[in-house]
Structure formats: C-alpha cells, structure tokens
Protein 1
Amino acid sequence: MKAIILVGGEGTRLRPLTYSTVKAMVPVLNKPFIEYVIRHLVNHNVKEVILALGYKPDAITNHFADVHQLDARLVYNVEARPLGTAGAVKNAERYIDETFFVLNGDVFTDINLGDMLQFHKNKGAKVTIALTPVEDPSRFGVVETDSRKRVIRFIEKPKPGQSTSNMINAGIYIIESDILRRIPAGRYIMFEHDIFPALLAEGEPVFGYETNAYWIDMGTPEQYLQLNRDLMFGKSTQVQFREQDICIDEQSSVHPEAKLTAPILVGRDCIISHGVWLKGPVVIGAGCRIHDGAIISNSILWQDVTIGAQASLEDCIVASNNHIEDKAHIAGAAINKARATKQS
Ligand code: GDD
Ligand code: MG
C-alpha cells in the first residue's frame, strides 16, 4: 500500500523553534520527527511514501538524500503554494491507483494500521478516519459516530460545550482512490472543512476507527516536550527507551562530578562539565557544551547549544546554535534567537 504524508506548514504554533527548521524535522530523541512516521508506515507494510511538501521542501529532501536505510520508496511532491490537506493529496493523484493512507505529518502514534485497514474493508467504507480520545478536544476536529461507527458529524475546533464527544480526528485516513476525482485540482481545499462534510451530506460511507494506541500531535512546544518525555518513559512501543536509562554517546565526555538523574540521552561530541546536574528527562543533541554547575531539568537541547556556568533551565527547549548566559534562570520557554527567514 501507499501513504501520503502531509508535510505542509512551517509549524506556526512551534515558533520560535521553527524559525531555523521545519516542523517535520524537529529532533525527537535526537532524530528527525518525520523518520519515526516513515518507519511506522514501513513496519505496517507501506512500501511507498509520498511526502506532500509545502514549506521549505529542501530541508527534508536534503536530509533523505543522506538516509538510505528506511526501506521505503520516497516520493517528493512539492506544492508551489499551499493547497490545503485535500488539495495536497489531489496534487499527488498521479501516484495513487488504489486504496491509500493519508497521515498528518505532525502526529506520532502507535496505531495499528493493519487493523484499521481491516476495519475499513469490513465496513465497506469510502473513507475511514482514525479517532483518538483527548481530554480537551477544542484544539482538534471532533468526529461524532453512530453505534456502527459511521461518522455523523464533524466539528472542527469546537468551542466549549459545542460537542458531546471527546473522540477527535487523529489525522490518519484510509481513502478509496475514486474519492480523488471529487477533489477539485489546483485549489486550496481541506478534508476537514470541505471534503469530509460533503461526503457525509451525500450519504457516502465514512467511518471512524477508534484507537487507544499512543497518540500525540506534537505541533506546540508543550506537546513536543511531552512527546520526548513520553518516549523516554517508554509510552510508545516504537522506542525502546526506559525511564532508568542514561545513554551517553561514546564520543561525549561527562565530568566525574556531574550528577545524572535518569532518563537522559546525550548525543555525540558533548562536554558535560564539573558540578552539572542533568535532571531527566533530558535530551541533549550533538556538539553541546554544558558549563560548570549548570542545572538542566525536563528539557531538550538541540545541536551545538552552550549553557553557561551556574545557569538553570527547567521545562525548556533550546534550538540549535543558541547560547544561554552564565547564571541565567529560565523556565518553561522555547528558546531560539535565530530570526525568522522568509521562504525562498
Ligand atoms: N502539503 C500540505 N499542504 N500539508 C498541509 C497543508 C498544505 O497546504 N496544510 C496543512 N498541512 C499539514 C500540516 O503540515 C500538518 O502535518 C497536517 O497537515 C495538519 O495540519 P495542522 O496545521 O497541524 O492541523 P491541526 O493540528 O490544527 O488539525 C488537524 O489535525 C488534528 C489532529 O492532530 C485536523 O486534521 C484536525 O481535525 C485533527 O484533529
Ligand atoms: Mg497538527
């Protein structure tokens, strides 16, 4: 089977982190996010992955030019301008000849795609939408179903009290290829606002596949931090990290009088100095320098970050090439001093 991953936007809600990288490439346990999504598809027998790319496609295509071990054929389909979720899929129509998956490119999930496909076939659905429960549905698209799991209503980003359900669109669809004919070409069209409601209005069989598998949309700094933390605490079957693990790359050095509290992951070429305290969960990317007496807790540093002596960071994300001053005390911040650059 084939899958289309929607890798459209800059990731506005992840700013300022996305000033220097695109959302799909943000590091999760020191690997680009999109790699996990592709590996999950490959593990469920998807052999061809079409990346529907909008914003700064080179950041992704250049990365995969160097990565060959993914066991999937990657196709890049670049949009000259944003076409919306359904428009981006329509734009990839020439690669599609059978039932296919569509995935939002910012969702990490352990969903069993094989089981979802079986459900789709058993129901005779034209479209199956994966549904996941969330505490606060207001940031998502709520999907209401009847007792047979047929979709009866969509409420995108509901106001409090507007919806009776906490089952939301998980951003994973199985679609029959003839649905593509109904999407107008070359226009900005969304599945969520335009195509799915139209299919319901016409009585087409659209079903909701409920899953309790691990699921998170990592499109905000809080959710991104949460994803890294969850993976370190072993909440996903895709990552073999355990909460008692302290993994330091062999090419990094840790002063004997630094204190390490698990879970911790440190990439290559890092120097952790005297008196530093890493209070996990902490992820440190390649080439970071942590100076004497700094304390870092529940935080993520990308690459080539320096943390000044006696500084403290708590619940922070620091983008690549940033420097934190000596004795700075920072909590709950996403830090990136790089300026926004315009799309080339
Ligand atoms: N190629 C392409 N072109 N991709 C796009 C475009 C576009 O014009 N617009 C959005 N995307 C991609 C985004 O990059 C992201 O991977 C995915 O489509 C969803 O867009 P978001 O901007 O992250 O949407 P959201 O999180 O507010 O809401 C969507 O996802 C929720 C689940 O996480 C909706 O589908 C909700 O209904 C859903 O609950
Ligand atoms: Mg999202």
Note: The radius of gyration is 21 Å.
Protein 2
Amino acid sequence: MSTAAISLRGIHKTYGKNIALDGLDLDVGEGEFFCLLGPSGAGKTTTLKTVAGLEEPQSGTVSLDGTDMTGVEPYDRGVAMCFESYALYPHRSAYDNLASPLRSPRYKLPAAEARERIGEIAELLGIGALLERPVGALSNGQRQRVALGRVLVRPARAFLLDEPLSHLDAKLRQAMRAELKAIGAVRRTTTLYVTHDSVEALALGDRIGVIREGRIVQTGTREEIWHQPYDTFVARSFGRPRINLLPGTVTAHGTFLSADRFFEIPSAPAAVRSVAPGTPVQIGVRPRDLSLGSAGPGPGGIELMGTVYITEVLGRATEVTVRLGAQHLSLVVPRADAAGLRPDAPVRLTVRPESLLLFEADGADGEPGRRITG
Ligand code: ADP
Ligand code: MG
C-alpha cells in the first residue's frame, strides 16, 4: 500500500471530561482533496489541530508522508492551516497579509514567483481588486478570503482548512467552491477540508469522511457515501429534503410491515431477504427516488397509496409531503407534476426497489441503525 500523506491512528483527545476524539482513524492520500464532514462538536477542528501539532492527543499517532510526527513542532510539520477565527494584520493591506508568510526564510521564494502565486490565488478567490486595501476596511467575507489566501500561497505538504467559506453568503460560497479547486496550489497539494455543509462536501471532496462524536463513521467517494451509507446518520447527513426513514418489521415473505400497513416489495432486495422475520428495521428512500402516479408498464415499481399533506414549491421542483398511515413521506417532483395536488387528496407513489435502503432500527440510546447489506 502506498503511504498516505496524512494518517491518523487511534487518536484519543479529551479536554477534562469532554471527549473530543474517541479513537479516530483517518487516511488522506497524496494530492487528494478530502472533506471531513460532521455536525458542530463532532471533533473536526480538533482533528485538524492534531494533524498540525497544535494539540497533543493522549494516545494515537499522526504520520505525515509515512513519518511519525510525535514530538515534532507545528512549525516543522510543513502543513498550512486556516482557522475558523482568522488572525490578520488589520492595518496592513490585503496584499501584505498574503505576502508576509512568504517572507519567511524557510520558503526562499523568488520575488517574481511570490507575486505570481499571490496574483493567481487572489484572482481566483475574487479579492484581486482589493489587494491595496487595509484588511480592517474589508467585509467579513472578504477577510475570510484573505485569510484563506494567506494559507494557500504557502508551499506546504498539506493544507488544513477549517470551514474556510463559512462567512460567505450563499451565492459567493457556491462560486468559491468551483474556484478553490481551480487554484494550482490546491490541485497540487493534499488538502484536508473541514465543513458541516454536506453540499460543500459533495461538491468538493475527492473523498468524504463523515465524523460523529470523535470517530470516523464512513469514508468514501460521494457515490459510495450516497448509495451505500454506513448507517442512518450518514444517510441523514446528505440530501435535502432528508432521506425518508420508515420504521417497521420484515415479515416471513420479505414484505415490509410498517405501523398499520404492508409495503409489498415484490422483487425483495437481498437485504430484505437476509433479515429474520420480525426484526425491526427502517426502510430508507430518498425524496427524489419517489414519483407520483402508478409505475405503468415495466418491471418492479413498488406502489404506495397515501394522501397529500402539504406541498411546497422549491424553485422548479415541488416538495410534496404525503401521509402514509401514521407516517409522513417527503418526495420531490417536477413542479408541473404537483400542480393539481390539494391537501387530503389521495395519491399513488412509486419507487423502484433498487433505490430502497434497509437499515437496522436506531438504538434506544440514539445510536444510528447500520445499513443491512444482505
Ligand atoms: P467541531 O470542530 O467539529 O465543531 P471541535 O473539535 O471543536 O468540534 O470540538 C469537539 C469537542 O471537544 C466538543 O465537545 C468541544 O466542546 C470540545 N472541545 C474542543 N476544544 C476544547 C477546549 N479547548 N476545551 C474544552 N473542550 C473543548
Ligand atoms: Mg470546528
């Protein structure tokens, strides 16, 4: 196996009684753009600080390019980190803030090359026209981009970026996602990127790691994370509206029984057949995998009958919430398909069996149910 650029093994980090990292393992490949996604408090910032050497874990090892970093000072690790709370020189120009790290003797960059790096990065971050202004006169979003630029100009073995677009408005954030990956230094450099925004993770990550309560739940490409989520936590982390999770039990014939009705699963997926009858499970179906109306000719559509609860226009699509017995199911359909729907009207829904996911029931302690793979 080739050596990972960043490798963490069994990292435990506690602050008093607070467990920040609980046996975390993580590998980021050479040159990879890796997104670490998780809710607030999951341990994302602590992970980055541990890689950077700003925090010493109680146990576990950090290696960079195969070399154990235990006891190696942050300065000597050769990584460049961008913090959530950025420290800039407010009285100095944006250009000066970008250029000052490059004056360090360790880089010895020729002046022309430094100017070129700064120019490219400032342009792609959309701050090219602001370079002469004092940073103190810039908006929060502009300052955050200067802080990000200040990290990206540095020749580093890895970039560690902690929610670097969080202070930008939605439109700019979307534009920046594309620009960020166009920056030459980012394309060439291993990047560990932290976010709590799943859209950002899906857009940016060559691979994504999902973190919960100080551990990595799953690592994979966006396709793997989307189609083969490890558990209901990962499944719920991606996609808006969220995946529908219907609790029920599997019966002897592989039919799914939920609260007060059967869902016939005619060509029962292997996952359903692998479960002992009577086992509590959850069926996961994403809102965009449900359609209105009957399956029509062709194999294997599963039909469900329900009543319209509420509809909500989302641009060109409409979110329809349907009542199915005691449960609510959300689907997203083209706006025209939902035009005639009125509350309480009966509707027929169709879903293809191959788009169903099967999970164990969530634990009583809130532990997410794992996906059953059959
Ligand atoms: P994230 O970046 O995912 O929001 P953090 O890594 O900042 O999460 O924090 C993980 C956990 O560790 C949280 O419960 C947080 O309260 C705790 N924690 C982080 N830093 C400190 C600290 N300096 N002192 C005490 N608790 C901390
Ligand atoms: Mg954080």
Note: The longest strand covers residues 302-314.
